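User: structure tokens for Membrane-bound metal-dependent hydrolase, please.
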Amino acid sequence: MKLATHAVFTAGTLALILRAVGVEPWRALWEAWAVSILANVVIDFLGHRGRRRSPLTHTPLRSLAWGALSSAPAVYLAHSYLPLLAGALAGPLHLALDVVTEHGIYICNPKCRRFALAHVRYNDPLANALAVLLGIGSMYLALAR
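Assistant: Done. Predicted tokens:
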């Protein structure tokens, strides 16, 4: 999926999760967006070699670690460790969208192999629109609670 799609989908899902653990609505939305942008940019920047994904960031455990590490600035700004936990979830949320694309994600056990649930192109307008709508809907639910 496209980077903007990853950002909206991740921000919406994280906002909903942060609201579920008791964070105020606007703070949840702010922290979700900050963590989403940081994590998705780092995962895509470090995890692509040319037009291919790399196992450096596109495995379940490594995405979790990169998401948590990339959220450090949000932890500092929020004066809370919740963005660190949200960052740890941002990595797997990124992979949740990538696993349906034609290049999939990597599963390493012990050798890394690509795995895909579907073979949708990363720039498919319908798939990207669906993920963006899910993200926006999640943000709406997070603010409406």
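User: Anything notable?

Assistant: The chain is about 65% helix and 10% strand.
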